[in-house]
Amino acid sequence: MIFFCEDLSFDEYVKNPAILDGYQRLIDFYPEIISMTTGARYDLKPLFNKFCGISVPSAEVYRNCICPLITSQSTFPSTFFTEREHFAAYMLLYTVSGKGKLQYHDKTYGLPPGSLFLINCNRYHYYYSDSPGGWEYYVTHFKGGNADFLYDNAVRNGHCFYNMQHSKAYENMRKLEELLRSPGEHFDSKAHMLFTELLISLPDQKDNILHRDPVPEWAARAESYIIQNYYTNITIEKLARLTHLSPSHFSHKFKEFSGVSPIEFQLSLRITRAMELLQTTSLSVREIGESVGFNNQQNFISKFRSQQGCTPSEYRKACGRA
Fold it and tell me: What is d(CA 231, CA 178) in angstroms, rounded to the nearest whole number?
């Protein structure tokens, strides 16, 4: 049984009857799916959902076939993050545009456009947006059949694959999207075949596999803390303690690594999130300023103008939401 929707805002998505019905039926069939959100920490409000497909298999199909339980492509804001473990499924995460970062197996990976990552969701994983303009990614959670064996085989040389835009894996991802959109007969066997081909193709991508950690642990720890707490008062001393560095050494290393100071990084997140809210909500300028961490409306307007060259109201009007 397939439930599908496309081209929805977040408010439309969470009220969509097909999605609500699909999630409930999937929970009835596979109660473990609840752990996808319960016990997790996340800011899971996409700016836009290109599509979402939910597949609810029969018990027999689940025993014999790899099943794409939830598959979607969405654009998430600059402050998006998800932190989770103990979820009994596998996840394929592919960056379409923007950038993300992922902490997995005690390493931190950058996820630029064209990167594909395979995750065993039972293990701790934490991923977040690393783009001022947001992060668009394609994701599918899968389980069933011989998924355990094929997953282990696929990641035997590594979990992260780069420059996958023209790969067999990418081709099969898009075929799965079309299959969810128009299931027709034999959906389960076709989906199983697509996943089997996709996973089998990955170990051959040896030139595209990343074998080492490209992001220093201290930088990942500081950035993730700022992203999760951008609307609060964050001090250099607090960040220095988190990274086990002195305040002056931390400030120097952060600017050297990121190109901006920690305070500038936090301000950029606040203003970017404010821009997203100005475009997508009817909240007042004062309410938006407060939600992103400005207690004083004039200070918010001043900081916004210094970053964008216009006031929040002028920006909203230019976006057609006066």
Answer: 40
Token duo for residue 70: 């939830």
pLDDT digit string (tens) for the chain, length 322 residues: 899 999 888 778 878 888 899 889 999 988 877 766 666 777 767 778 899 999 999 999 999 999 999 999 999 988 888 998 888 899 999 999 999 999 998 888 889 999 999 999 999 999 999 887 789 999 999 999 999 999 998 988 888 999 999 899 999 999 999 999 999 889 999 999 999 999 998 877 656 655 445 678 888 888 888 888 899 999 999 999 999 999 999 999 998 888 889 999 899 889 888 888 888 788 999 999 999 999 999 999 999 998 888 999 998 888 775 5
Q: What is the pTM of this model?
A: 0.79
Query: What is the distance between the alpha carbons of residues 241 and 225, in angstroms, rounded to a whole number?
Result: 12
Whether 173 and 140 have beta carbons less than 8 Å apart is answered as yes
CATH 2.60.120.280 domain extents, the chain: 2-208
Q: Count the neighbouring beta carbons within 10 Å of the beta carbon of residue 39.
A: 12
195: Cβ–Cβ under 8 A, 6 or more apart, which residues? 66, 68, 142, 147, 150, 172, 176
Q: Which CATH class is domain 217-318?
A: mainly alpha
Q: d(Cα 195, Cα 149) in Å, to the nearest integer?
A: 12
Q: What is the CA radius of gyration of the chain?
A: 21
Tokens of 57: 């298999």
Write the class of the CATH domain 2-208: mainly beta
List every span in the chain annotated with CATH 1.10.10.60.
217-318
CA 205/CA 154 separation, integer angstroms: 10
Phi-psi group of 210: left, alpha or beta (phi > 0 → left; psi -120 to 50 → alpha; rest → beta): beta
C-alpha neighbours within 13 Å on the C-beta side of residue 108: 17
Q: Is 209 helix (H, G, I), strand (E, B) or coil?
A: strand
Nearest to 95, CA basis, from 143, 67, 129: 129
Give the tokens for residue 212: 């080492």
